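Practice set, problem 2.
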Amino acid sequence: MKNQKGFTLVELAIVLVIIGIILGAVLKGKDLINNAKAKRLLNDLKGFEVLALTFYDRYGRLPGDGDFNGLIDGNNLNWSLQANYDDNPSNTFLTAANGDPDAPLAELQAARLLSPDTPHRILARHVFNGGFFYLHTTINGENKNAILVEHVPCYAAKIIDTAIDGTVEATKGSIIETTGGAINTSTSGWTCANEDDLVEFIYLLD
C-alpha cells in the first residue's frame, strides 16, 4: 500500500483562505441583516411620528392628550410591550386625562389612522420585539412629548442616534437614552457595555 500523503503547505494555505472567505461572508451577512433591522426600526419610528403629527393636524392635539394641555398624558419610562399594552383595548377618543399607555393608540384607531381591529401589542411591536409608546417626560425642567422605544440593541440605537442627530450622543439632541426609568444625564454617552446590550431611548416630538 502506498504511503498516504498529508496536505502540503500550499493546500493548507488555500483551505485557510477559503475558510476566511466563508467566515468573512457570514460576518458581513450578519452586519447587513443588523443594519437592515436598525433601518427598519428607524423607519417605523418615523412612521409613529407621522401618525402623531397627522392626528395633531386633524384634532389640534397629540394622541393621548386627553386634557388638551399640550402633553401626552402617560409618562412612564418603564413601560414594556408585553407588560403594559392590553390585548383588546377600546378604540375611543379621550374626553379627559388618561395616562394609560393604550390611550394614544386607541385614539389613532378611532381616527382610522391605525387598523381598528389590530391589538396594540402588534401595532406597537418593532423589529427587535420591543415596543413604541407615546408619552411625555421632563428634561432639564421642561416637559417634552416623546416616543419611548424599548428593548433595542445598543448598536441599533446608535445607528438611529447618528441618523437623526448626526452624532452618537445619548444625552443630546432628539434621541435620548433612558436608564432605569429615568433620563440618562451622564456625559459618557450610551451606557451599554457591548453593542448587543438592550437599551431604551426616547425620540422627542417637540
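Problem 2, part (b): a different protein.
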Amino acid sequence: MNKTLQVRELETEFHTPRGVVRALHGVSFEVQDNEIVGIVGESGSGKSTVVRSITKLLMPPGKVSAGNVNFAGRNLLDLTEREMRQIRGKEIGFIAQNPFSALNPVTRIEKQFANIAKAHGVKVDASERSRALQLLESTGVRDPERVMRGYAHELSGGMAQRVVIAMALYLNPQLVIADEPTTALDLTVQRQVLDTLRRLTVESGRSMLIVTHDLGVVASYCNRVLVMYRGNIVEQGLVEDVFVRPRHPYTISLLNSVVRPEDETQFVPGDAEAPDTAEPEAPNPSTVQLSEARRS
C-alpha cells in the first residue's frame, strides 16, 4: 500500500526567554492511502504541534528543528511559504478545532468558497458553485442555497463545522487533517459530523489524520492510532491491537481513565461532614434600619 504521508524524526522547539523547550522528540509515523489515522493523548502531549509542524502553520516562537515530512514525493519542510500555500487547501485539507475561527465573519459563505478556488487557480463559474452546493448538501447542510448566501454568525456550531468540512474537501485534497474537529459540539452533533466526515473520506478514497483526546472517536472512526505523551509517540498500531493489548504504561493508564457503565463505582475513603441544616438567623432590625438610612 502506498504512503500518503511519511513523517520521520520530526523535532520541534519553542524558543523562550528561559531557554529552548523541545515539544516534539523525533516523532515518526506514516499515513497510508485510504487510511484514517488517529493521534490521541492528553492536553499538552504535542498532538496539535505535530499537525502544525507538518503543515508549516507553527507560529513563533515555535520552530521545526529536524526531520522530514514526505508528501506526494516532496519534503514539505523544504518548501517555501508560497509553495505551501498552494498545497494547503488543494492537496492537504485542514479542519480546525473551532469552525468560527476558520470562517470569515464579514464575508458570505459563497464568497469564501470562491476565494478558495481563486487562490488555487480554479475558475469560479456556475459549475463550481453547483459543486459547492452539492458538497454542502453531502455534509448534511439542510438548505445549502440559504447557507451559501449567509454569514458564519447565522450558523449553529454543528452547521458551521459542516461548512468548514465542505471547504476542506472542496478542491478534493489527497489528505485531510482534522484537529479536534468536534470539541465544541454536543455529543449528538459530534457523532453526526464524524459519521459524515468518515463517509466522505471513504467514498473519495482519500486519507485522513484525526487529532483528538477522545478514545471513543479513535475506536469508532480510525484504522490505526498513535499515542502521544510528552512530545513522543509512545505506542502506535492498529486500533484493535493497541486498545485490546496496550503495551506502554501511559496507554494503559489512558484506557483505564475511560468511564465504562459496567465498571463498579469507586468511593473515596473518609467521612463527609453533615450539611448545616440549622435555620438561618433572622436579621437584626436595628442593622436593617441603619442600612436603609445609609442608602437614603
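Answer key, part (b): Residues 187-204 form the longest helix (18 residues). The first strand starts at residue 3 and ends at 16.
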